[in-house]
Amino acid sequence: MSSDFNERVIPTSKMGDDSYASRMLRDQDESARLELQHHMMTKSLGYLLHPNISQQLASGCKIADVATGTAVFLRDLSEQLKDPSIELHGFDISADQFPPADQLAGNITLHLSNAKQGFPEEIHGKFDIVNLRLVSPAMENEKDWHDVARNSMALLKPGGYLQWIEGTLDQSSTVLCAVPGGDPEFSALLAEGMQKMGPWANAEKANSTMAWAGRNLAGVLKEVGAREVRQDNTSTDCIPEDRQANTRMFIGAFRTIAGAYVGTPKGFRSMDELREWHAQLQEMTRKEKVYMRFDIHTFVAKKAL
Fold it and tell me: What's the CA dihedral at 19, 25, 29, 30 to 10 degrees?
């Protein structure tokens, strides 16, 4: 790796178009929601690193987190491993949600990089483990999935492991009854707001994007050279007592999406109107008559020797 690779935040590639920013907000509330989402999902999974991967950990290994966001995965992993010799590197197209340097352990380095465009050759083949979580919202077409898969695999050493966790996110807008009859008022208010989310209001397009990984990602990983591809499936409601917390977190995600389209012809007229809609839904969850959930898919793939 180059001598400047150990700077705390450095650009490693041209940024290009940030499709995520045009479709979702990156504000303080969203950063907090992403942190909650990480912790809730980790609880549902029961691990930060899949057991098949964690048993490969050794002092001095290097781990990359692609689309790192707030770097919460790396911060949790650093706390769990308690081994400063393990290098943890986060890559994201935007530094807007990077935490202050004084909140990062000494073995965590954050980089500006666009996973769709690829990473510089000097860091190809340098990592023992590469992690990705919930990048679906940034994916616009099948080419994006292939490009990110190929570019992430390129970071791995021969024999290294990739962990890619996605959700069938379109399911999270389906309101399920926690009690007979559910809450029709909640369902109607949610449906009203869902029509103010730009292209996400197009159910066919949104569903094709948000449900793509569970059905297709294993095949893509094999196409780009992965070996021993494994897919494990669980769901966000596998722990019943967490259903309402997850539901409130999903409502927060809808706020983030709708916020990117405030003021557009079919969006909310103002942020105040959006905040009122969001607050009403959150208050309604206190009745615990409904909940929302989605399937979680973990893909574990080994790079050929």
Answer: -20
Mean pLDDT of the chain: 91
Sign of CA dihedral 177, 178, 183, 189: negative
CA atoms within 13 A on the CB side of 38: 22
Task: Calculate mean pLDDT across residues 240-247.
Answer: 96
Q: Name the superfamily (CATH) of residues 3-303.
A: Vaccinia Virus protein VP39 (3.40.50.150)
pLDDT in tens, 24-69: 677 888 899 999 999 999 999 999 999 999 999 999 999 999 999 9
pLDDT of residue 200: 72
**pLDDT, average across residues 250-258:** 93
| Sign of the torsion formed by the C-alpha atoms of 265, 269, 273 and 275 | positive
Answer yes or no: are the C-beta atoms of 300 and 162 closer than 8 Å. Answer: yes
- Delimit the domains of the chain by residue range: 3-303
Q: Taking the model in full, what pTM does it have? A: 0.89
Q: φ, ψ for residue 274 (rounded to 5)?
A: -65, -45
Q: How many CA atoms lie within 13 A of 149 on its CB side?
A: 27
DSSP result, 67-91: T-TT-HHHHHHHHHH--TTSEEEEE
Tell me if residue 176 falls in helix, strand or coil: strand
CA atoms within 13 A on the CB side of 258: 26
